[in-house]
Amino acid sequence: MPPPSDIVKVAIEWPGAFPKLMEIDQKKPLSAIIKEVCEGWSLGNHENFALQNADSTNFYITEKNRNDIKNGSILRLTTSPSQTAAQLHERIQSSSMDAKLEALKDLANSSRDVTFAQEFINLDGISLLTQMVESGTERFYWLLLLCFSFGDLLSFTLTAFVELMDHGIVSWDTFSVAFIKKIAGYVNKSAMDTAVLQRSLAILESMVLNSQDLYQKVAQEITIGQLIPHLQGTDQDIQTYTIAVINALFLKAPEDKRQNVIRSPKPINDEMAHQLYVLQVLTFNLLEDRMMTKMDPQDQAQRDIIFELRRIAFDVECEPNNSGSIEKRKSMYTRDYKKLGFINHVNPAMDFTQIPPGMLALDNMLYFARHHQDAYIRIVLENSSREDKHECPFGRSSIELTKMLCETLKVGELPSENCHDFHPMFFTHDRSFEEFFCICIQLLNKTWKEMRATSEDFNKVMQVVRDQIMRALTQKPNSLDQLKSRLQNLSYTEILKIRQSERMNQEDFQSRPILELREKIQPEIMELIKQQRLNRLCDGTCFRKISSRRRQDKFWYCRLSPNHKVLHYGDLEESPLGEVSHDLLQEKLPVADIKAVVTGKDCPHMKEKGALKQNKEVLELAFSVLYESDEYLNFIAPDKHEYCVWTDGLNALLGKEMTSDFTKSDMDTLLSMEMKLRLLDLENIQIPEAPPPIPKEPSNYDFVYDCN
């Protein structure tokens, strides 16, 4: 007979004694359980003791989290959070440098626990740490170096501070300018302990993100230019923290103070890739205002930009008002604006009233005309010398191209929580978007000529150009020169070959015999996909626990047992490099106990956390396993691929249909390959729509041989 669900069997440790095995009744008050444990070891004053997890976290057991205790858990009897906080509060003020260092190290570890953090903060512990940082002087630091590493002392102090503040108990607005100056000073120093620099960057990022007032103070102490040297080192953690600070400054800064500063062609990890992606999105979003601004036909400054385009193209100066009749000048302007490729020849300002791309298109045209003047003049004069129907209209092309580039780069959209899709080439030039436009407008003109297009083919040309650009971007060129080279290879002829090849690989077999063969093969392919999904679940996946600070996220690992009967899972300190063995995963969930798999907004953790619920990207990666009556195991997949693998695998374990997009894609790919393999012998043979007719019966059966 199984034990009651409220009874949990655990082991409890106490220094200097043998561990005790005991049953905990979850219905009893936690204080009563602690009293019982203390009496077992003849310890008095049970109110001064507490239980904590005997793992790497050392988190205290409270009434709120006691239900997380599982059968087989190992707990430790220790001093209560209030007692520990008071002891550490006293120890970090010790006159002995060795004792102070050891106390700060213990404080940094303990501060990860919110229960301890609350007690230490109640003792005004945050103020004590900030005073320790503020009161330090350079002379004092050098004296400290004589007896131990100051870097370690400061590192543990700042680590404890970051961990305590991360719980959101204390407001960031409470810190003095002296403290900010001190932290900024550590960042600005050319030679600083790596751990101290990391913590200082983390503190600056949180200050900027959590308080507009602190942003102003931090911005006075540190500039983006002072952060650039940290990006030029080899430590990717430092680079990641630095980019996080730059992103924070970008988010809070007025638009006129934002600038592009990152140049980094080196291979990078996922977290840094995400930060670079965020910076890329924020940088391109600066274009949104111009993209959504219509041109005012009555604004003389804006009209002067169009005059400048005409002047550069045709090498003419603005004529004085008395030169010729008004009609003659209007006729001359109309002729030139037609050569420039505007739709409205009389008043080209009207071409820029469409949003998007609005004034951004005109900005791009002017940049091209001024910075690539020879190419600009060549394109305009080359097309103006062609027949009307064969000319590539520069004005119209520029407007449509700018709109296409904004759609491609998703200008105006917010950064995704889990995306790492950044383009290194955009960090190699201060005016990367404008240079991107200049390359693409020349590509458009080249493709127009290769297609021998007419004005009726304008939309077809734009589709080909979009295809060329998207295929080149997929290869992630490291520089704008690489982009040019790859676009050069993607000529119109090459695009036709690629499209033809893709069509051949996606032949549509619609005849009845082929359809019947597909139906016969499908169950075999589905079983193959199912086995692949279950094998992937057996390999396991590292999942992230979403927190308010991305870089301090915790990890946990889950994998299916080889016999497909148990899910093994457990917390990890950091993301593993390979598979995690079953022995290291202490928690277990029998597959037989799983009641259902829910996804998206139906997941319990999406309902509980408002911030996550509002994040569309996280919502699309969330799923939960429901078991017993109201228990659940919550997941947030690292990407869409893992989401599909796990939801498919879990549904397969429950005997349900696998319905993910990934399964559909795999089915199409594998089915197509299998069909082609089976039909190889029938190449160039016409398969009839219907089976051949059965011949008539013979007039006699004399030809039948009687074996007897």
From TrEMBL:
Gene3D superfamilies linked to this entry: 6.10.250.810, Leucine-rich Repeat Variant (1.25.10.10), Pleckstrin-homology domain (PH domain)/Phosphotyrosine-binding domain (PTB) (2.30.29.30), SH3 Domains (2.30.30.40)
Transmembrane helix listed as a keyword: yes
PROSITE patterns (alphabetical): ELMO (PS51335)
InterPro entries assigned to the protein according to its UniProt record, in alphabetical order: ARM-like, ARM-type_fold, ELMO_ARM, ELMO_dom, ELMO_domain-containing, PH-like_dom_sf, PH_domain
Main location class: cytoplasm
TM spans (from-to): 140-162
Gene Ontology MF annotations: SH3 domain binding
A cellular-component GO term for this protein: cytoplasm
Location of the ELMO domain: 301-473
Signal peptide range in chain numbering: none
Entry keywords, A to Z: Apoptosis, Cytoplasm, Membrane, Phagocytosis, Phosphoprotein, SH3-binding, Transmembrane, Transmembrane helix
Entry keyword Amino-acid biosynthesis: no
One biological process term in Gene Ontology: cell motility
Pfam families on file: ELMO_ARM (PF11841), ELMO_CED12 (PF04727), PH_12 (PF16457)
Annotated localization: Cytoplasm; Membrane
Record's function text: Involved in cytoskeletal rearrangements required for phagocytosis of apoptotic cells and cell motility. Acts in association with DOCK1 and CRK. Was initially proposed to be required in complex with DOCK1 to activate Rac Rho small GTPases. May enhance the guanine nucleotide exchange factor (GEF) activity of DOCK1.
Protein name: Engulfment and cell motility 1
Source organism: Oncorhynchus kisutch
